[in-house]
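step 4 of 6: structure.
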Amino acid sequence: MRPVGEALGWLTGPLAYPFMVRGLTAAVIVGVVCPVLGAYVVLRGMAFFGDALAHIVLPGVVLAYLAGWPLVLGALLAGVTAALGIGAISGRARLKEDSAIGVIFAAAFALGVAMLSTQRGYAVDLVHILFGNLLGVSPQDLVWMGVLGALALGAVFVFYKELLVLSFDPVLAATLRLPAGFLKNLLLVLTAVVIVVSLNAVGVTLVLAMLITPASAAYLLTRRLPSMMGLGAAFGTFSAFLGLYLSYYWNLPSGPAIVLVATAIFAVALAVAPRRRDLWSRWRRGAPDVRPA
Amino acid sequence: MLIHPAVHVEDSPAVELDGVSLAYDGTDALRQVRFRVERGQRVAVVGPNGAGKTTLLKVLAGTLRADEGRVDVYGERPGGHICIAYVPQRSQIDMAFPVSVAEVVMMGRIRQIGVLRWPRRRDWAIVHQALASVEMDDLAHRQIGELSGGQQQRAFLAQALAQEAQVILMDEPLTGLDLPSQEAIFRAIDRLSQAGVTVLLSTHDLNLAAERFDQVVLLNRELIAAGRPAQVFTPDNLQRAYGSHIHRVADGDGLLVLADTCCEGDEAGG
């Protein structure tokens, strides 16, 4: 019985600390919300867009930090503005869309780092913003994460069949006169919201992994969108949980710890996945509708 | 948020085009195309690669807008209809997408179901009926990518049926299919036609167009001819559409045998 007792102690010991309980609650929120929306990011080939959006959020976060607002508010503002802005630009500019996104995303990220560097002790804060700090989640952060996460999940549920048609067959969506512009922008804004929810957990640079790694692992093992979302949420939650404990015991930033666990799950999924699915070929040729808007 | 479906004008033809032109980047894709199709007709749209077959179907679906000319479906512009189904070329769809055959068919009913609602029992009944009429109800719960090409094509036809479409546009549905699959599609089309549904189908196969359809539209960016197959497939028209690559041979029964030496095995479509 001793090893069991030790394992239990390993798990329950940290729960004596309120910051750890908050961290775990936040981990569950991120673990569930990210892969559900991430399923669409994977299926629609929006990974680059998601990564860009996560970096674009940085100046908003820094601005909120400097002004003393909740960080979530700054991130949300920057994220939603950028998501809609990219959606608008991509329709018009002569530039290839990924180049346009790349220019904006690098510029915003640079601006964010420059703004933060004016502050004393910025290195510590920068590490937290870039790589996540689940152990530093405040009660106020938790409320924001819960509300935004619930909103994102609710929207995915309410518009489930419309988003499914848009993602599977955009031509059908057009012939049936679905409001494609609204739905595409909705997906962009939801992606921004989910990124904001995940910032505390995995940080700006690793949000992408929470969006696509558990969802991709689930994609390899399932044949229906609801089960892909469900299994992805299970993988995401487990990754966030275990990652948080690793972060606690080994004093790692929570983001890398969570992402490494998620990647290990993905590697196992890749090894055991039935042959009928070929994620690599999907990545090579890209999903049918790769435009974010 | 949703556009109200167009009202059908009584006694109007199913499809009517007049002076329809459309250009991409300054190159004409369609020039002054004009023809009409009565309700319940089976129409083959034929022509060489790049003749504008796909463009024509998309104009009828309302997903492309003509630069000039008039397009009417049941007496109204196509942009307002939800009774038009467009069945895309299979290569346009990501068949690895995690959806079942029944879910793909149900997508056709999204407007009937309505926003903020889920499919009701009646919707599922219609989906299974649609699958049964393309002889595929036993495959309803398979993932779409697990089906053969012919079965996938029939699944999309079933989607058009579930949509309760009055005009069904099919882009190269026969390309690359084996004979039994082609026959299954033709049986479904014939039943639709008897029920008053109009079907326009693009194909490279002139013999099938001649044998299995009420009407043929022969295109090469401009309309070469439209009408009954025997009227359309004249040596002169074929020469104008295909140059010297095609030969018309009349066999003993008066049927047309057309030897296509230009587009063999080419799935690019136009």
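step 5 of 6: annotate
 - Residues 280-293 of chain A have pLDDT under 50 and may be disordered.
 - The interface with chain B takes residues 43, 158, 161-162, 164-165, 167-169, 171-172, 174-179, 182, 219, 222-225, 227-228, 276-278, 282, 287-288 of chain A (CB under 8 Å).
step 6 of 6: archive
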